[in-house]
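Priority: medium. Attachment 1 of 2:
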């Protein structure tokens, strides 16, 4: 199994690509997005601003992903994924969150990137319940690695103990089914 759970700051990881939990403007925000922009330096915001808008103010619709270089980060690339805002679970939140993982993995494969690290997309300001988000992250990444060779290293990054435990629990539940 090439899926790791790691607790810490995603901006420190020397992987091929780190995923950002961005918003649709791609023009910066708080949480992990703010941390990634601070660590990457101002060129990251310039690169995001150059990405075309698909409609006014929207560079990346919810559930989609856009790529930029990593600039001053140890990671070579940043994939900006926009997770859903949690409402009540009946507004396509699981599918939209799953798309963030699947589209990021697909883009990594297309770009031949071998290691990828994800933050807990939607689990901060966007309010997604941790266990439900962890279930989506684990099921999508496990399904990917069962059927694809690249990327071969997938890191699920937890910024705190609660998220770390949620990932461990969901992996433990999912693994007997894939064994
Ligand atoms: P969203 O708007 O998608 O909810 P947030 O950035 O608010 O995005 O939170 C997403 C997750 O990223 C949360 O679990 C938060 O604890 C985590 N996080 C915040 N800073 C970092 C960081 N430097 N490294 C890894 N994860 C982080």
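Attachment 2 of 2:
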């Amino acid at each position: 199994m090439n899926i790791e759970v790691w607790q810490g700051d995603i901006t420190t990881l020397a992987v091929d690509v780190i995923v950002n939990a961005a918003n649709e403007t791609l023009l910066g925000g708080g949480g992990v997005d703010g941390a990634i922009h601070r660590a990457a330096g101002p060129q990251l915001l310039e690169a995001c601003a150059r990405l075309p808008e698909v409609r006014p103010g929207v560079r990346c619709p919810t559930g989609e992903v856009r790529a930029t270089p990593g600039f001053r980060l140890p990671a070579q690339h940043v994939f900006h994924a926009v997770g859903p805002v949690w409402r009540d679970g009946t507004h396509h939140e699981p599918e939209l969150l799953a798309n963030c993982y699947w589209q990021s993995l697909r883009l990594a494969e297309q770009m031949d990137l071998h290691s990828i690290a994800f933050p807990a997309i939607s689990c901060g300001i966007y309010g997604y319940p941790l266990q439900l988000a962890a279930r989506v992250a684990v099921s999508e990444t496990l399904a990917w690695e069962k059927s694809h060779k690249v990327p071969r290293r997938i890191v699920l990054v937890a910024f705190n103990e609660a998220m770390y435990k949620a990932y461990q629990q969901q992996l433990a539940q999912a693994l007997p089914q894939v064994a």
